[in-house]
Amino acid sequence: MYLDFQEISFSPALQSMRVSGTGLSSLAGISRATSLRRLHATDNLLNTTIPDEIFDLPELRSLYLSFNSMKGSISPKISKLSNLEEFYMYGNLLEKGLPTEMGQLKELRELVLARNYLTGTIPTEFNSLPKLEQLSLYDQQGTDRLKGKIPNFVNSPSVW
Predict the structure, then answer these.
(1) Which site among 11, 104, 115, 149 is 20 to 30 Å from 140 CA-CA?
(2) What is residue 127's three-state secondary structure?
(3) Where are the domains of the chain?
(4) Which residues of 123-151 are buried (b: 16+ CB within 10 A; e: fewer)?
(5) In angstroms, how far is the first alpha carbon of the chain from the final one?
(6) Which of 42, 47, 46, 43 lies closest to 62, judged by CA?
(7) How is domain 8-136 classified at the CATH fold level?
């Protein structure tokens, strides 16, 4: 299903959108929802990289993109989402390493990237996430998985 977000700018007060399980295949035009705080688009047919338009949503606090077939890596542009509190991309095809810029997400509480193809190490910049409570990276697929030392999370007193 292709939803056209082109007229979403006519809804400037729209703060939450739940389009999970709708067969959605594109998020083109989503950046027009400038007040969007919550986007739930899990269990769809999104099979591209994370669209750069997502990073143009300055108010975004919750981003749920689990159970799609999203591929590629997480862009360093994710640091533009300075209000992001919850980021779920469980069960996709994400690969490569985690960008160090994720350490700039000072409001991030929940980061769930399990069941992907992530490689490399967990950036030490994750120690700079003061509100982080949950980090889920388990069951990475493929042969070259995450490795190395786990950050000490000394500045993340609520990690569990």
Answers:
(1) 104
(2) helix
(3) 8-136
(4) bebbbbbebbeebebeebeeeeebeeeeb
(5) 38
(6) 42
(7) 3.80.10
